[in-house]
Amino acid sequence: MTMQLDSMYPTRVDFGTLDEIHRAARNALPREVFDFVEGGAGQEITLRENRAAFNRWRILPDPMSGVANPSTRTELLGMTLETPILTAPFGGDAMFHIDGHLAVARAAQQHGTVSIVPEAGSYSYEQVKSAAPEAADIAQLHPFAHAPAVADRIRRAGYSAVCVTVDCPIGGFRTRNMGNRFDPDMRHFAGNLTGRDGAPGVAEVFGQLLKHGATAWNWDDLTLAAKQFRLPWIAKGVLTTEAAERAIAAGASAIVVSNHGGRQVDPAPASLTALPDIRAAVGPDLPILFDSGIRTGSDVFLALALGATAVVIGRSALYGLAAAGEAGVSRVLELLTDELRTLMTLAGAATIDRLDTSRLVRAEYFGAES
User: Which of 227, 242, 303, 350 is 20 to 30 Å from 97 by CA-CA measure?
Assistant: First the structure.
């Protein structure tokens, strides 16, 4: 049964800024749960580097460009997005709000975009699809032995694509969680538990992944499994040109340039730093999604200008969810899109496909420090 929005969460919110939403999320969550969201792996160098990378670029204004009311519409694997901002497949979502990804997907649907639905979520693929049939159109899975059966379930549930997380054979060494002795209730990750139509579930497998690692797969294993998916698939967790090329060779229709939000390898390169080289390597036509570090509309602008087709927000969507459920996520998407549209007007870009490196300059050109 789909849970209803708890009465303590408003259906409309008056958050003026994204910072207000972040503070509200911090206040709403127990400290160890907030740290689980906020933290990264190791010394959190990658986590900080993700943000620092955005500060190395500046947007060039284009006075008197004649641009007004720019369009943020774009296309992704046959899906039309009214805003180039998708929500990420973060698991354990009922820890943050009782409606979890039901609320996230409904908010995405309000804004004409897509929600990537997690395998290790609190609600099943079918429940989220029912809650927001237009937005719940990409479903995530992990490349374990059960992947073909789960992909078949995803297809039968009506999704248009599969997102395979390729950078998580084991959970990262997350010292903040370790210091907090954080031991999440795995029921929050069990929305796709074994038992529905005979398809394998994820709860036990994911619990082992977090603690011990899963059976190691390589690109050849994924290539063979993906031939059984019968849906376009996206490789999430690509950070090098070599990995991008291997994903394409394995049959991926798109990739997500991502370091898992700084939660896996530490130290690792910032996702934004890797993005231009990967775009150059794969050419102009392959769809590239981008995540890790998006906090503002200017971040969205920079990622698109440096080669992304669209971006994926994880923590930012989760802050909105924790702060005010569906209404909070909707407000995050609204603020990010409004800022993006404002910057497109000021930079003279009438459409998303007009965003490229000609709109940018490196910060050091002006003597700015990163």
Answer: 303
Phi then psi for 81, rounded to 5 degrees? -110, 125
**Can you say whether the dihedral through the CA atoms of 117, 122, 127, 132 is positive or negative?**
negative
Which residues lie across from 26 on neighbouring strands?
none
Q: Is the pLDDT of residue 195 over 50?
A: no
Neighbours of 296 (CB within 10 A): 18
How far, CA to CA in Å, does 167 sit from each of 37, 259, 261? 18, 8, 11
What's the rounded Cα separation, in Å, for the pair 275 and 241? 9
Compute the distance between CA of residue 350 and CA of residue 302 in angstroms, rounded to an integer. Answer: 16
Looking from the CA of 48 toward its CB, the CA atoms found within 13 Å total: 6
pTM reported for the whole predicted model: 0.91
- CA 359, CA 289: separation in Å to the nearest integer? 20
Which amino acid type is present at position 56?
A: R
Query: Which of these, 110, 164, 108, 163, lies nearest to 136 by C-alpha position?
Result: 108
Distance CA 263, CA 165 (A): 13
Distance (Å, rounded) from C-alpha 129 to C-alpha 139? 10
Q: Apex CA 336: angle with CA 87 and CA 20, to 5°?
A: 100
User: Which of 104-118, 138-152, 297-311 shows the lowest per-residue confidence on average (mean pLDDT)?
Assistant: 138-152
Quick: pLDDT tens for 315-362: 999 999 999 999 999 999 999 999 999 999 999 999 999 999 999 999
Return the percentage of the chain with pLDDT > 90, whole number: 82
Indicate if the pLDDT at residue 367 is higher than 70: no
260 is catalytic: yes
What does the pLDDT read at residue 198? 41
- CA–CA gap between residue 91 and residue 278 (Å, rounded): 27
The residue with tokens 């370091």 is 259
